Amino acid sequence: AQSVTQPDIHITVSEGASLELRCNYSYGATPYLFWYVQSPGQGLQLLLKYFSGDTLVQGIKGFEAEFKRSQSSFNLRKPSVHWSDAAEYFCAVGARQAGTALIFGKGTTLSVSS
Amino acid sequence: DTEVTQTPKHLVMGMTNKKSLKCEQHMGHRAMYWYKQKAKKPPELMFVYSYEKLSINESVPSRFSPECPNSSLLNLHLHALQPEDSALYLCASSSGEAGELFFGEGSRLTVL
User: Fold this and answer.
1) Distance, in angstroms, between A74 CA and closest chain B CA?
2) How do A10-14 and A108-113 pair as beta strands?
3) Which residue from A minimizes the CA distance to B46?
4) Mind listing the pLDDT tens digit for each residue in B11-28?
């Protein structure tokens, strides 16, 4: 079955500390992997994506993610968190074809403490 | 222009009303999507249009009726909704070449 698991429902990080959000996937074909961020009452914004090639991908707002095929993981990282990073983060997996739906994880809520 | 525009941003309707949500994109994308999102939950897929044809319908109740008048527009017609249909309705589009979905800001629907 195709699925995405985000093991952490809620994470609190101090401002300036590093962050890692976990994502594991199960997908029959070659996965295309994404991280989206959603601020309260807003739509989803794409942070970064992985299709192929270099397994460490850089995204917007200083985020990066590493694809590890052997662990079926695509964890999101940021070296220094800012208060504005507090939001809901969704990992998603899909295929490279128009009309294919993404499969989303349940999301991780990030809180940033001062 | 990389925007997906949704109107209205907020909608309050009674259970006997008929209303519509609208979505527009001018990125030349050939796939458009409707998602429903409840608070603190991931988006749930409702419908997918690919090349203006309905390609996926995730067993959505008939009180939700999608329409794709052309490749840039997507509507969601609402009729006889229930209070549990209150949610954020997200529209998205995709070119298919890159895989990712581009989301609008959503329409916040409240059914009284």
Assistant:
1) 16
2) parallel
3) A101
4) 999 888 899 999 999 999
